Amino acid sequence: MPGAEVDSTRAWRSVAATFVSSAVTLGIAYSFSAFFQAMATEFGTTSGRTAVLFAVTTCTFFFLGLLTGRAVDRFGPRPLLLVAAVSLLGGLVATSAVGSLTVGYVTYGAGVGIAAACGYVPMVAVVGGWFVRRRAAAVGLAVAGIGVGTLVASPLSARLIEAYGWRDTYRILGVGGAVLLLGCTLLIERPQAGSGSNRPRFTDAIASPVFRRLHLSACAFTIALFVPFVFVTQDAKAQGVPAVQAALLVGLLGGASVIARVVFGSLTTRVGSFRLYRMCLAGHGFTFVLWLVAGSSFGLRILFVVLLGIGYGGVVA
Question: Is the pTM of this model over 0.70?
Answer without folding.
Answer: yes
